[in-house]
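Q: I'm building a small set of examples for a reading group on sequence design. Run inverse folding on the following structure and report the sequence directly after it, with nothing in between.
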């Protein structure tokens, strides 16, 4: 899984996306479907486009360079793994671990 195609989804149905030309595909829902609804729209679009893996980030998430390498390795290494989670830290103080994965 070496190809990554970012897609931005605005699920709020408002002009909240920057007006600058995006460096990836971007679309806006016709109505406010909330963050979860926007994630679902993006997931459906990605799967329809042939995606094998989908990474969902909230609008306040910040990823580090190379942050998807380890999760992709985990997914590639074991076909029984269907989902991976991230380590979550606070931007103000990233030392303490706030959340690791999900159950």
């Amino acid at each position: 899984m070496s190809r990554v195609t970012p897609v931005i989804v605005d699920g709020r149905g408002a002009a909240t996306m920057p007006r600058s030309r995006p460096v990836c595909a971007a679309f806006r829902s016709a109505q406010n479907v909330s963050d979860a609804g926007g994630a679902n729209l993006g997931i459906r679009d990605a799967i329809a486009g042939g995606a094998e893996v989908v990474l969902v980030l909230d609008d306040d998430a910040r990823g580090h360079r190379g942050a998807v390498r380890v999760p992709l390795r985990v997914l590639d290494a074991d076909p029984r793994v269907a989902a991976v989670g991230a380590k979550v830290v606070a931007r103000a103080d990233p030392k303490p671990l706030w959340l690791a994965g999900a159950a």
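The chain has a mean pLDDT of 79.
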